[in-house]
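User: I want to check something. If I give you two sequences, will you return the structure for each one separately, not as a complex?

Assistant: Yes, each is folded on its own. Here is the first sequence with its structure:
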Amino acid sequence: MLLIECNGILQATCSFFRQPANFAPDFDLSISELAALDMCRKRAIFKPMTEDEQEALKRRCGGSWKLVLRFLLAGEACCRREKSQAIAGPGHSLAVTSKGEVYSFGSNSSGQLGHGTLEEEWRPRPIRSLQGVRIIQAAAGAGRTMLISDAGQVYAFGKDSFGEAEYGAQGTKFATTPNRIESLKNIFVVQAAIGNFFTAVLSREGRVYTFSWGSDATLGHQTDTSDLEPHPLLGPLENIPVVQIAAGYCYLLALACQAGGMSVYSVGCGLGGKLGHGSRTDEKYPRLIEQFQTLNLQPMVVAAGAWHAAVVGRDGRVCTWGWGRYGCLGHGNEECESAPKVVEALTTIKAVHVATGDYTTFVVSEEGDVYSFGCGESSSLGHNGEEGQENRHTNVLTPELVTSLKQINERVVQISLTNSIYWNAHTVALTDSGKLYAFGAGDKGQLGIELVGQQNERGKPERVDIDLS
């Protein structure tokens, strides 16, 4: 039996024996397979699938219900599905409660807050038009927002175009309230990721689709910058289930769940070595990052910054690679790394979560402690948080404990930070009790906190008036 493969499978087997099964026995299945199937049927994504769809997912995952369960649990763990979450977008922020309600605040010049207006919001405000719709995941980009419902539907608002010209450009089309993306209505979506020139979505079967990229030299298909039709990501991932996607400035990472274990694929622009293949060449089709096999590391969470990337392994090690400007890789220098490299300064902790921004990285430990490194601009690292201290803007080349978050006496479970070179950075931290804290740039209200006088940022984490539990 595959009990040692995943704690979830062991839990499934135990629960299977504790209570009567809710389905007739299948004598063609082993006890562990029956237990895994029982647990799969309790997962929110699996429940609405027809028997044919369930069997198709089983084949895609490798022909075993244990592998399907591992696929489902891995997706829940790295994407916080069915749980509260916070997102720090370029100039605006989003907060999703455990009940699926969505609050937004900050910059709203393109209607990216979804309230039907173009007015900035300095306090969290619920998106009223979504009443009755349960949101399980959110994504924020420059001037745009996407929300995913528990029914797999995708809602978008804000700007509908991509590219350099959009920044400061006039006459761009936008929507101020959530609109369902009709081109995705036949795809049950569980996650979205927004880059600077494209959008990617992940289906519940683990298939990746992209649109609005604008070049056939990057993702293996021809699209126009205004193309809203999803195109399947071609190449090796066509037949490999993906549990998480992460979008950087001009590239995409995919965390795949194969029978032999977890792996990471990358595609797009290779400038700075951010694709992780030991070179700086572009990749038209997804390519396996082989370095994790060399490091004997099982990737569990992946994060894509604008120009650098990071992974957390099953054993709690953290790897970073890409453009190392300002020390965002945490290796004590500003050198580029074209292949994943273990952050030695973090080997004494077990990491469970990582988040990357423009030139900044945050790591959350199993105990809920937070470490950050990289660009200190806008006080977004959370170090030396007392107002008036000049060194709170200092760049940090190796991971440092964020003592200002330690002092709130709350266990942090998720960090999100601005991932755009066009905006001053800000950071939001979510605790296991559902409390939200914010720090960094707040000039557009993206901290959810009223600033006084000439203030335009906060170096010390402050509680946002919203309960996400």
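And separately, the second sequence with its own structure:
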Amino acid sequence: MPKWLCNQIMRAFHKKDRRQIRLLNECWFFYYNRPQDNHNAGQL
């Protein structure tokens, strides 16, 4: 998980901002499920 996304999620949980938590959760799943290019292949 990118550091910026982790920081945003931590901030949303701290503020108990459910809307932001849902949005960031969707961003994470989009990021995690994106097609991998050759540079990142095998780095999971």
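Because they were folded independently, the notes below concern the second chain alone. The longest helix spans residues 18-32. Residues 3-32 form one domain.
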